[in-house]
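thread: overnight batch results

M.L. [08:02]
morning all. the overnight job finished for the chain we discussed friday. pasting input first so we're all looking at the same thing
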Amino acid sequence: MVNTNITRHAEFYFEDGSAIFLIENCLYKPHMTLLRRNSTVFKDMFSVPPSQNSMTATNSCTIIPKDGLTDETPIRLGLPFTVSKMDALLRWYYRFSPELPTLSSLISILELSTFLDMDIARAFTIQALGAPNMGLSPAYRLSLGLSYHVSEWIEPAFKDLMHTPANRIPAEDFVHLGPLVCHLVASTQAEIRALRLSIAFNPLIPPSHHPSCKNTVLACQAAWESAWWDGLARHYLHPDYPLSPREALSKLETTNIIGVTTACQLQAVQIMKDQEVFEREHEIFSNALVKLKTFEA
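M.L. [08:03]
and the structure it wrote out:
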């Protein structure tokens, strides 16, 4: 029985097109040369080795399968194809508009170009979506990076989320991320926060007393503790602009701490370097990143 709701696409059903596709209730008839040139999936679909009886001078021949020859026997494309996504992809390839595609169109192009191995379209959308004026939130970039294998977005976006308190992440971003990624983000933030609190409330007292120091051990301890609480700990736990581990170590190394000789100060810092006190945060992040990449679609 013929489905009378099926119609030809107003823009992308070309009379001189090569193959007919059905997406939802809409028929497309694009030019196969365009599709084969830009998609390894379509190239493989419509290219086969010639038979022994083939009268061709080339090393391969192009065929159209039985499906795709008529409106009654189209090649049916299910998910992830939709009319709106296919329109976005073909409109970009045929360059019907000189304007940059909208955000939703770019995401559609990214999805289908990834699915169809269309390198040129994929590279274009990754560059366009990565532009600052697109305004993609870290959560949205992370979601897109995981869904469509844009590896260069994953780590920077995840790092940005680590510096964003959960109560400042919009509800729609949690929808983009999904429950598993949300749990990983929240648990990693909590683990890093617990580590920072532990470091901030443990100012490495007493510091190793350098033999050349003429102060008493108690005097050095008191000066070090005072500088720690009044300086490093406050900046390290700042709710909006916390010091990174590298910045914290640099601050300890370069700040002039009144009452602590330079020799004692540098020796105490060296002990922290040797114990990798500030490296533990990087380890937590790296372990979480490994787990995160297992969520790639």
